[in-house]
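The methods section describes the discrete structure representation at length, but only in general terms. What matters is that the chain and its backbone geometry are given together, residue for residue. Nothing conveys this as quickly as seeing an actual entry. For illustration, here is how one protein appears when written out as sequence plus structure tokens:
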Amino acid sequence: MAEFVKLTAGELKQLREVNPMMMSYNVEFAEVTGGTFWKAYTPGQIAGTESFDVDMSGGLAAAYKDLMQLYPPINLYDEKLRKLAKEFGPLWVRVSGTWATKTYYDLDGAMGGKVPEGYLNTLTREQWVGVLDFVKEVGAKLMISVSACPGVYGKDEAPIPAWTPVEAEKLFKFSADYGVPINGSEFVNEPNMLSDTGFPNGYTPEDHARDQKIFYKWLKENYPDCIYIGPCSVGSEAPLGKAQPNSKAAGGGIETVMKTCSTTQLMGEDPCPLDVFSYHYYNGISERLAGVMPSMHWLAEEATSEDYLNVALNSARAYAPLRDKYCPGGEMWVTESGDAGGGGDTWASTYLDVIRTLNEAGGFASITDGVIFHNTLAASDYAYLDRVTHDPRPNYFAVLLWTRLMGTTVYDAAEPQRVGAHVYAQSRKDGKEGKVYLVINNSETEATTVELPKSAEVYALAGKDGNKRATIMTLNGKDLVLGENNELPALDPVVVEAGKVEVAPLGCTFFVL
């Protein structure tokens, strides 16, 4: 059934003001040091014409050889990479990931490339300077998590001694002395995964509650301008995949495969103070891991469904009470976000994921204030940019439009969410009087009619040639691809007079009134 949406140029109920840096991103620590990361999909798998098959009969550990590959360190001085990153304007760059928990900071070169016992990899001075120079060049704020592996603790078995800042101090001091201080930090990436995230064997939630407070105390005594963000859990209170509140789909949580704990257990009976509450959200598990966690994987045919698009919003709703408990009055940050854990689905680099990305942005802002860190800038299939060529993917242009058009005042769009009509409203980024509406038509078959009260600037996004799995997105029918010397295409609107206009099936359209 086709839907009808009536926009208004008049008053709307104001919900909140949101962080102007809401749309931020991650640079994986594994990118910085070089290391193993998810193997790229083939063009046929991305297009949906070739199946993705991995032998999972021997379990996940045995299958990793077919799922991962070794990558060299990213060149953060690459002119094209910097140029495209800078277009987003000021935001947060998070340099973290599971890799970060297991890294030795060899900033004085004493190890000469050798990895000390108890660590997985090393970070060199040159690599970290590259991060700091990049952050400065793009005008960002820097967020990290710190090393907390057996090498830091001095053992790999219980009982676990208290965490010490022996490694963290090196990174914080070097950054401050270099003139690009660390502005925000979590303790550890996804600590509720316990030993799977890099902690020593036998590490418990009680150990984390103790160590988080030690880190917080050290941070505030030595680097008081750095905000503390935590606890950075994933898939506990809001299960990944199809096990969603109000969903009829059956499913199970990540705890069915890995030993995890809850956010409440991580915080303990005497909770550590938080400046910002954080969690991780993914819509599910990608094809790479579907063989061992089938209930957590969505099919491409489900990626426009109400259940699928509600995952991000349900996660925000599930974690908001915990934010209120542990960080009352504070912001809530999604410090990793993307379509699927395990490096992204086969369609993550296509137009199809734009629908999820923009719906998450609009829905999150309607629920709370905070920052969403897209995973990642240029690593794996869910990145904004291709890892090798750095060519922008559809999500890059979608978020770039968001940052250019959407202001920080969020309104109730006065439209119930339904198939064909996910409608969000915010102030204009240019500061002019008026509103910016985002209308997402997640119907595969029916156009949505939008009635405009006056003339509007229209930015209509679609997959090239109507293909939802297209790797090129169009704006008002024009391909969004780089020009000569890597120049961005014009992101210009068309002006439509008052009256009725259609949003095509699977179209995402911004209306600036």
In short: Residues 244-257 have pLDDT under 50 and may be disordered. The first strand starts at residue 4 and ends at 6. The radius of gyration is 22 Å. The domain at 16-411 is CATH 3.20.20.80 (TIM Barrel).
